[in-house]
Design brief:
single chain, 652 residues, Rossmann fold, seven-stranded mixed β-sheet
Length: 652
């Protein structure tokens, strides 16, 4: 171990002294050459005086090189910084030499050391050029040897701007990079056909199957900053038909210390194509809303709850209470926040269904704000576990909402879902009923109850994208429930930021709806994920249509029948204008539903359909309740017809 350490240290310093030695030899030869150039390549000068001056000049060079550290750069990674160090060393040596010559002339100490100023200037220029050229020569030779020994893959850089050039420099300067840049691709016609760093710039019209095959190109690296995701998606789609891999350079903000590292150039992910430009809130009220407040987040270990917690940690709150029943996930969040330097938070393992436990928490901490994200959300599972859906999504929400009202919480923000709109499943209906209960309690409470409603979240637990990734890893097939099924998607960070903003702007009683952009066809999403993995559809991995799952819709909606929206000051957030409710009757029925569910009564689903008339089951055994209700209505109608006929008979 010790021997290995000293061996490595010896190699490390030996390489530096070798560079220093070569620099000194180059510096000395440049001084000799400067005399020949000054005297027109003749010997019309005092050669003996030259050889007396040479050791003196080399000594000054040695001092300047050591002082500036110009010899410490790794030659195979020579760049602008190394050239700058050489320039500093040459300038310093020239200044010292000129200073010595002037002093020597002034006092007439040593006539042999009176070097002409023209010689010093010529020497400086030759030394700088020679030392710089030697480094780049060694770098080129090294890269040439490495490229001959290693099997290299050919790549194209999409984008010939500043980011593309930085990407090229990052690739070519990395020792272990087995990549050869064949060219740039750019839409700017002024650049097409020209060269950058000796690499040709192609136009997008040049890209075809023959182009990729002829040049044996294996990868295309997108290096365009602030590119619109729709435009990126379109460009990637155009490349999907070719047998290549597509990679992407991250935004500048994610570069390490402002420098791009080779390890940061990643395979392009489906999230890169689905994400929209990050939301920028100009007139944010969040800071003022959270400042010096005690905040509770339920479901804090979940996808949305944890991101809300992360974003809250960036503000000057008084205390943050994180509640979740998932012990391991809550522990992971605790460790993550501590590692980031956040300590003013309290993780609590607790169940929102436990009213006594929740009451104790509210009593101890007296929260000002509550973000209620705790819920069961998996549609197929909840379809046949209605007891749990009602117990958590409705009764659990009722517990937190009632306590918020009792302890005079300033604002209560409820995280709902687009599946609550015209629900076709237990999960969606339970969330809609929770929305209705919040609307009811708002009528008699000082607390401002606010609901936020949005669709699927990228990367969340149970999201379709992680499922597809696992299926690709196992060789497929990918499973899609229906060829026409579509969904809205939003990033976790984006959704959480909008929740905070909606909570800040809410005055109580609103249902805020987020702009989810355009819906995405899941079948197309699956095909793109296969292609982005470097595989072919259907040759390598196929897609299997499994049929709609119990309670699943083809298309999600953000507005229920009879609802429309009003704008807010934030273009991504709208307020839903909901139809009026008979609050007393609705609340009474919700209380009855929770009691019936507690005693495992069989009429809970039927009661849910009565509370939410637009709840019509699909692809589920629960459709029988809709059929019975329809039969009952048909019988009532037919009875009514018979009565009318009997009454009208005597008139004939």
């Amino acid at each position: 171990m010790i021997q290995k350490y000293f061996t490595n240290q010896a190699k490390r310093y030996a390489s530096k002294w070798l560079v220093l030695g070569i620099d000194l030899v180059t510096f000395g030869l440049a001084f000799v050459l400067s005399y020949f150039i000054r005297f027109n390549l003749t010997l019309n000068f005092d050669v003996d005086k030259l050889f007396i001056q040479l050791p003196f000049v080399i000594s000054i060079g040695l001092f300047a090189f050591i002082l500036t550290g110009s010899y410490k750069g790794v030659v195979r990674h020579t760049g602008v910084r190394d050239v700058y160090n050489i320039f500093n060393a040459i300038c310093l040596s020239s200044i010292i030499t000129i200073f010595f010559v002037i002093v020597n002339r002034q006092y007439g100490m040593m006539d042999d050391f009176t070097i002409p100023l023209s010689i010093i200037i010529i020497h400086s220029l030759i030394s700088f050029l020679a030392m710089t050229a030697s480094r780049y020569l060694f770098k080129t030779i090294y890269q040439s040897l490495i490229s001959n020994l290693e099997i290299r893959k050919n790549v194209l850089i999409y984008g010939a701007g500043e980011s593309g050039i930085i990407t090229y420099n990052t690739i070519t300067s990395h020792t272990r990079s087995n990549v050869k840049v064949i060219g740039y691709v750019d839409n700017d016609l002024q650049k097409v056909g020209k060269q950058i760093n000796g690499i040709k710039v192609y136009g997008k019209r040049d890209l075809n199957r023959q182009f990729f095959q002829k040049r044996n190109i294996e990868e295309v690296i997108f290096s365009i900053q602030n590119i619109d995701h729709k435009r990126l998606s379109k460009m990637v789609d155009n490349l999907m038909e070719y047998p290549i891999k597509v990679k992407i350079v991250p935004p500048v903000e994610q570069w390490i210390n402002g420098e791009l590292k080779l390890s940061q150039i990643k395979n392009i992910q489906i999230e890169d194509l689905l994400e929209r430009a990050p939301i920028k809130i100009k007139n944010s009220k969040i800071q003022g809303e959270l400042n010096d407040k005690v905040i509770v987040v339920t479901g804090a270990a979940g996808s949305i709850g944890s991101e809300i917690a992360r974003q809250i940690c960036n503000y000057q709150y008084k205390s943050l209470i994180l509640i979740d029943q998932a012990e391991s996930a809550l522990y992971d969040l605790q460790q993550e926040l501590r590692q980031k330097g956040h300590h003013n938070f309290i993780p609590i393992v607790g169940d929102i269904r436990d009213k006594n436990r929740m009451s104790t928490i509210f009593e101890d901490y007296r929260p000002d704000l509550v973000f209620h994200a705790a819920a069961y959300k998996h549609v197929p599972l909840m379809e046949y576990n209605s007891y749990e859906a009602i117990k958590v999504n409705i009764a659990g929400t009722k517990v937190i909402a009632d306590l918020s009202s009792l302890y005079k919480v300033d604002k209560f923000v409820f995280i709902s879902t687009d599946k609550a709109v015209n629900p076709t499943n237990i999960m969606g209906a339970s969330k809609r009923i929770a929305e209705m209960y919040i609307s009811c309690i708002q009528q008699e409470s000082e607390t401002k109850f606010i609901t936020t409603r949005f669709g699927n979240v990228l990367g969340s637990n149970g999201s379709v994208i992680p499922l597809f990734k696992r299926q690709i890893e196992t060789g497929g097939p990918l499973t899609v429930t229906h060829q026409e099924v579509t969904r809205y998607f939003m990033t976790i960070a984006e959704a959480s930021q909008l929740v905070l903003e909606a909570g800040a702007m809410g005055e109580g009683g609103e249902i805020f709806i987020f702009d989810m952009g355009e819906s995405v066809k899941i079948f197309d999403l699956a095909k793109n994920m296969i292609r982005l993995s470097g595989l072919r559809f259907p040759e390598d991995i196929d897609i299997k249509i499994t049929g709609l799952r119990p309670g699943e819709k083809l298309f999600e909606e953000l507005l229920a029948n009879g609802e429309n929206t009003l704008p807010t000051y934030h273009k991504k957030i709208m307020i839903s204008k909901i139809r009026e409710l008979d609050y007393q009757q609705v609340r009474s029925r919700i209380d009855q539903l929770c009691v019936n569910n507690m005693f495992f009564k069989a009429d809970t689903v039927k009661l849910m359909k009565e509370i939410v008339p637009e709840y019509v089951s699909k692809n589920s055994d629960l459709c029988k309740y809709d059929e019975k209700e329809k039969e009952s209505k048909d019988k009532d109608i037919s009875k009514g017809d018979m009565i009318v006929l009997k009454r009208s008979a005597p008139l004939n």
